[in-house]
Design a protein that fits this description.
The protein has a single domain (about 1-115, about 130-305), classed as Outer membrane protein transport protein (OMPP1/FadL/TodX) (Porin), CATH 2.40.160. The chain is mainly beta. It has a 14-stranded antiparallel barrel with strand order 1-2-3-6-7-8-9-12-13-14-15-16-17-18. Strands 4-5 form a two-stranded antiparallel ribbon. About 5% of the residues lie in helices and about 55% in strands. The relative contact order is 0.20. The radius of gyration is 19 Å and the shape is globular. The termini are far apart.
Length: about 300
């Protein structure tokens, strides 16, 4: 079973594909929690912790729920991931004044995994799938326009063949706005919690530490707004990553995005597009992977009211 869990982790993120493997690579469970939320931020190399302003703040930084442009934000996303795996998720955020709340859910499912007996055979005996699911509650408190703090609680479930496991995790985030509406700085710790027990094996959660910043130009460029984001990300089972991304919104109607991850084993260049009509925004991200792992395509729909 330990082998099956490690195989699922490889399919989800392929974190051990590099020759320079971190000594803790493959030791964490529920690695689907590392997959970013929202196609908008995937197109910017997941440099989202200090710039997110929609319901996916429940994932990236609960303190940023205070940055919602409207009272309500609703977002749904589908990601076609590596080797027939997929991620489907839902985010809802609401609030005004000093208090903001969020609800979210995420489902990761694998493609067909061959099942064989003790004696190797050319054809598998059968096929099975694995599932990871989490549901979460988020809260943010905003004492003033310069500061906000938030937390997220997740309930976790994993099913691999005939085995199941349950757990929970906590996130905590802080956001500071030295220049409200222009410059924001953030610190986040995610996926903190007890170890997962699957049969007789114990696995850590993929705890991650993030420091991030985002800046929006105070003037327009070609009738549009330009924003840049940068994040330093340190998972406990991988090396330090630096994620950088830029976004350009033309007349608030169409967006182009580029990003690059430094220090990631399988993801580097990313790109994305966005189209906005009234309160609806449709985003798409293109994320190629190294080592012949293919390309993941992510689509999300955001509605604010």
């Amino acid at each position: 079973m330990r082998r099956a869990i490690l195989l699922l982790a490889l399919a989800a993120l392929a974190a051990a594909a590099s020759a320079d493997v971190h000594p803790r690579a493959g030791t964490t469970a529920w690695t689907f929690l590392k997959i970013g939320a929202g196609a908008r931020y995937a197109g910017m190399a997941d440099a989202a912790a200090a710039m997110v302003d929609d319901a996916t703040a429940c994932y990236w930084n609960p303190a940023r729920l205070a940055a919602l442009e409207r009272t309500w934000s609703l977002q749904a996303q589908h990601s076609s991931w590596i080797d027939s795996t997929s991620v489907d998720e839902f985010y809802l955020a609401m609030g005004s004044g000093q208090h903001h709340f969020g609800l979210s859910a995420r489902l990761f499912s694998s493609g067909d995994i061959p099942l064989r007996g003790d004696i190797p055979t050319a054809d598998p005996v059968s096929y099975y799938q694995t599932y990871d699911f989490c549901g979460a509650l988020s809260y943010a408190f905003t004492p003033n326009q310069y500061l906000s703090a938030g937390a997220t609680f997740r309930r976790l479930y994993e099913k691999i063949y005939l085995n199941a496991a349950y757990g929970y995790s906590l996130d905590a985030g802080l956001n500071v706005n030295p220049l409200p509406g222009r410059l924001s700085l953030a610190g986040v710790i995610t996926n903190v919690g007890p170890r997962l027990q699957m049969q007789h094996d114990l696995f850590r959660l993929p705890t991650t530490f993030t420091l991030a910043g985002a800046y929006k130009l105070p003037w327009q460029v070609g009738n549009g707004e330009f924003q840049a984001a940068l994040a330093a990300v340190k998972p406990i089972d991988d090396w330090l990553q630096v994620r950088s991304g830029v976004e350009y919104w033309w007349k608030g109607l169409a967006a182009g995005r580029l990003g690059y991850k430094f220090g990631h084993d399988t993801e580097h260049f990313t790109a994305g597009l966005g189209i906005r009509w009234r309160n609806y925004t449709l985003d798409y991200a293109f994320v190629p992977h190294s080592y012949d792992l293919g390309v993941s395509h992510r689509v999300s729909l955001d509605f604010r009211f």
